[in-house]
Amino acid sequence: MQYAELFCQSNFSFLQGASHPEELAIQANFLGYQAIAITDECSVAGVVRAHSAIKEHELAIKLIVGSMFWLNDELQVILLCPHRKAYAELCRVITNARRRSEKGDYALQEWDLMSVKHCFVIWLPTGNVSDEHWGLWLTKYHRPRLWLGMQRRLLHNDQTYIQHNVALAKQFELPICACGGVLFHHANRLELQHTLTAIKAGVPIADLGHQRLSNAERTLRSTTKLSKLFKHEWLMQACYIASQCTFNLAELKYEYPAELVPNHKTPIAHLRELVAKGINIRFPDGIPSDIERTIEKELTLIEELNYPYYFLTIHDVVMFAKQQGILYQGRGSAANSIVCYCLEITSVDPRQINVLFERFISKERDEPPDIDVDFEHERREEVIQYIYQKYGRERTAIAATVISYRLKSAIREVGKALGINITQLEFFIKNINRRDRGLDWQSQVVELGLNPDSSKGQQFIHLVNEIKGFPRHLSQHVGGFVISAGALYELVPVENASMPERTVIQWDKDDLESLGLLKVDVLALGMLSAIRKCFTLVEQHYQRELSIASITRLQGDPDVYAMIQQADTVGLFQIESRAQMSMLPRLKPKCYYDLVIQIAIVRPGPIQGDMVHPFLKRRDGLEPVEYPSEEVKSVLERTLGVPIFQEQVIKLAMVAAGFTGGEADQLRRAMASWKKNGKLMQFKTKLINGMQARGYQVAFAEQIFNQILGFGEYGFPESHSASFAVLAYVSAWLKYYYPALFYTSLLNSLPMGFYSPSQLIQDAKRHDIKVLPVCVNESYYDHQVVDDEGNKAIRLGLRIINGFAQQAAKQLLQQRPKQGFESVNQVKQLGLNRYAMEQLASADAFHRIAGNRYQTRWKIMDTEQNMPLFAVHEGQQEAFYFAPSDIDTLSEDYASTGLSLNKHPITLLDEAGKLTKFTRMTELKDKAHKSLVTVVGVVTGKQAPGTASGVTFMTLEDDTGNINVVVWSATSRAQKQPYMTAKILKVKGMLEREGEVTHVIAGKLIDLTDELATLKTTSRDFH
């Protein structure tokens, strides 16, 4: 028997559907269905996933695109797309309904349905008296394309509902089609559907009442069962509708906006003109012949594949940024294009890296190129609004990002639905060690008090695992724009984002790639904001104009590289992490290309491919560099015979195994997801046979393939690394020559990078930079560079005060007298609210005019001073005096600003005699390799890379610097409490030294947090 399911909601009907679109498509095919329609509520967000699953698994089932809607809680209809025009119409209806409402909601109007001329309409009567009205209304506008949908949910009123629908069909002369109203692909998802409903309702499952499904009939049912539930003609009518629906998502074709091309010019001619102008800028001394040939090759392929508009679009955006003085940097595969270099999209000189255009565009791949451009994170909004203004809301929107349930949100939401106490759930979340990949979360919650033998405990574990990965809602992509020639809502529905003046489409980046649709990435990068602010400060204080290009031309500065080699890289771009700092003294970068390698080699790909140690040995002359052929040498010579970059793997496949550029890129894509689908293995035979046929030994071919496997999904492109290395060098150069200005710029650009304000200021002080406290008379909102006894110092700004509103700061600064405030009462007269005054007092911002923070609070509480009759000079008041201890000051400093300019916590503990003998960071250099040491510090960071096999890299900060601590998984498991929760940690362990790299292998962990119980420090945890 044949059947087509026309009413099916996936989990993109958020908190309703309990199965992924892929699961629904695969299960429907397994059951022998002719077709399945994915009809999420006012959405087509999930349909691409089903389309991709059918394509990937080569399923015979037809996919129908549609959507379900409610109008006024009285009329429920399904709109299906028989052809492309109907699809455009559906997208318009969804867009209109969504744009009328806030994010996550929709408001369908009668006009929306009245205007439908192409979509098939399936009416799902509610069983209420209002059905009479809506039956008449629908037949008036849609009779040739209207069906009545019959559902069988086997409820107590089933027969009554059938009779009601049959009567309506007869009255309005409508054909009846069978509909499942499917919410999950298998009956065992009923529990999860109940859980989703409870989460949506905000009540435990036990309190759902009639909102809870009473059986599992809203699943995909066997054709045998369906034949017993529905009349044969109703089933056949569903198949007939499916047969008339011929639209396929593969029909969607992107059309580029054309207004960037001047009249009477072709797109490629205009692009060639712009490239010619760019050649004069980029190669003022003349262009090398090999570069010229590559440009011509690129332009020919761009024309052949019809991509000129894409390059013109990106060029237009970056030229706007350039005109507005917004720093930007093209990165990613665009660095493989000399055309992009000439168009000033990227600043990576093709002469400095091995350009591989096939990594960017290939004829075999026949997919749009991917250009990512980073802009200053604080000014990217200007670029976004420029795009909106240029193309209009109808023609552009940001791609979506699907926010899915992860472990923490799954535990919290499922637990609440099951009626578990929220305090217990938060206790689970806080104490589960998610860094230890060898320790599953289930066993940890059992240790934390969950009863695994109870039915609720078993349900909890089962449902959390099921809901993980389920979409929660659509958010906006970090910057992926879709720009179209015509109305965008005819290509994909558009809805409001949570941010004002933003709209998003209903598909994410992966969906767009699946359909081959164009995305322009307008990304934000904090380091660009910091660099631009530093340039401004340099101009203000030293009258020197700087740019990324001018610093990049000074690539070989030995003093800058000496600083990098010493791992003095706190606050720098890309080379600031714990792992990078450990590698820098070993690799010792001396030039730009060394930085490119440095950034790429501290990645899971080279580490898992066992490429790091061979590279270091060859670099140090401890291992010979040999090549089996000149072709292989041409690819690997720059990395001493070791493949470190994705492009090298691709080129090896081309020169050593005979792969075409397109085939080699397919290899790259298979590398990116081989653990998920195993596709990489299908290239093994072709690679090894190709290399053998060209005279290479089988052992060498096997070695290359094993290295490819080692790269797995972590291979890092040289083009990315080359782009990053430019900013890494620029940030290092600024830190070396203008350290006070650089730190100030970083502090004014937070949040960004690995380091907190406290850590940046500690590092600044270690570089002999004086840091001055927040002052109500001297500070501005931002941190300032000031002259202090002939040196540059940093004056902390009001922005450092936790919770202090920018508007309050503006009010204070606008009314601050030129000579400064003379009393607390004078500041009170400005009209700042009590909370803002207390925040200033807590940060000790009144220290110049009111004594310590405790005296200031006393004066703030004096309300008599607000009354003219009682107003007296502050000096006449009865004095209040309280001398805070160092511990009091430290605690208040951290609570109000997250840092202290006074004594370090470790200094205080040491002076108070609370620490037994220990070794400071600066003393570790005097300790022998493998010696036993005790170190103490504030926990400022934890990293657990995916390749570290459960190892955590901790950073402890004492009063002399940062100490690197390695915690093995067995140690963290055995000493879970101090490992998880300690803010101040004592570590007894063994010192290891390799060259200039020193770290402590943790043995005993001792939590000293209670010694400074009121101290608030923040650890930046990365996992």
Structure description:
One of its GO terms (cellular component) is cytoplasm. It comes from Thalassotalea marina. The chain is α/β, with parallel strands linked by helices and 1023 residues long. The chain is 43% helix and 14% strand. It has 44 helices and 23 strands. The strands form 4 sheets. A 7-stranded mixed β-sheet has the order 1-2-3-4-5-6-7. A 7-stranded mixed β-sheet has the order 8-9-14-11-10-13-12. Strands 18-19-20-22-21 form a 5-stranded mixed beta barrel. The longest helix is centred in the last third of the chain and has 20 residues, at 718-737. The model is unreliable at 869-878 and 1019-1023 (pLDDT under 50).
The span between the termini is 52 Å
- The proportion of residues in beta strands is 5-15%
Which class best fits the helix and strand makeup? alpha/beta
Low-confidence stretches: 869-878, 1019-1023
Percent of residues in helices comes to 40-55%
The count of strands amounts to: 23
Largest sheet properties: 7 strands, mixed
